[in-house]
Amino acid sequence: MELMKEEDFSIWYHKVLEEAGILDMRYPIKGMLIYRRWGLFIIREMQRFLEKRLEDVGHEPCLFPVLISEEVLEKETDHIAGFEEQVFWVTHAGKNLLERKLALRPTSETPMYESFSLWIRSHTDLPLKVHQSVSVYRYETKHTRPLIRGREFLWNEGHAAHATARGAAENVEEIKGIYRELITDFLCIPALIDRRPEWDKFPGAVETYAFDTLMPDGKTLQIGTAHNLGQNFSRVFNIQFETADGGKEYAYQSSYGPSFGRLLAALIGIHGDAKGLVLPPLVAPVQVVIVPIIFKKTEGEVAQILEYVRKVKDRLSSMGLRVEIDASDKRPGDKYYFWEMKGVPLRMEVGPRDLAAGKVVYARRDTGEKKELLFDELSQVSGIFEDIAASLRRKAEEKMNACQFAVKGYPEFESALGKGFVSAGWCGGKACADKIEETASILSVMDEPGVCVVCGKPGKAIRAAKTY
Ligand SMILES: [Zn+2]
User: Fold this and answer.
1) Residues 77 and 114 reside in one and the same domain
2) Which of 77, 152, 298, 468 is most buried by a 10 A CB count?
């Protein structure tokens, strides 16, 4: 491939998606994708990890229908105002116009909370926490980008109801911790948590927190959000419960979701290199590829090497690893190129000398480093995997940290945009926010003081960036 992702990220990204078998982007509806084996496998690993962690802390899995009635979707006015331009409507059944049109879910607060009002009667029913991994549909009018901005995307959405405001706030904190595990521990992706400004909150929320990471082109990507909904939805959907002393109260709620597609986009963009994908071992569809190196091609040698290669594979498989043997007719160099492009973390080469010495040669995808292991040392592969993950995480963190700039005046602010996260100040005035948002997005307004980059008046510190 030998295409520098820093020079033209967009070209590199599309090429990797296609060549590595992540997606097929030729589906004839704009903004909709075909997920192929390599991409879907990684998404399913993320999903498995996240669902387990959510269920560990008391979420119940559920699955709601994809269609939402107009009446239910439009109950919460701020909420529907935030989504109305993006909703896909089903208006016909065969040739007949439906009496009430039906929406394809853009997110599931409204249908779920309609059910919460039936499920929640007493404080003993709380907290109630559910989650589902589904596709959602939003008619994006901006330029679509595979996995980043589409009209159908895969996510997990969690929804909770609590008896107290504190319960809801604590749940949001717990979710931030779980998302941090998924994003940084599991996928090795660094991210900052930003509290979104008033105008950029989730429609209907009291507070919105977002995980923002940095893509190689200097733009930030929002990969997950968690919202404290207060009692906004519970009042509209009448989610009331009987308190311990016999009174009535509205539940306090929160909702949250990471986009699996955006996480995959970040994973590809942040870890990949000129040769293609670089995958953290835990999510790689194939973790070790074994390439037999056969010189003489005498029948005896071929059989002996293949037998040894199978023994190596069996040993690794018995450790729970995903292993593939590439015994195709391609030349070894072509095989290396192919599996490097696919991001397989470890390649093992086995030739006649390795067979004789009872060893294998391995090459790390992330560093290119080559070393040997004796057959009896194959159990060390788990340790090598941990080392690869730690190294990917560290490299990505160093890179993101090097792309954080603190600026004072407007010219300095403007020239830092597009290079990463920019810390600055904002007075709180609308005109100055509008000026800033002509070229950037304000990701977060902080509690610390700051001097406005536009007018120079005192205000609060902000974090801004060019965003996807
Ligand atoms: Zn100002």
Assistant:
1) yes
2) 468
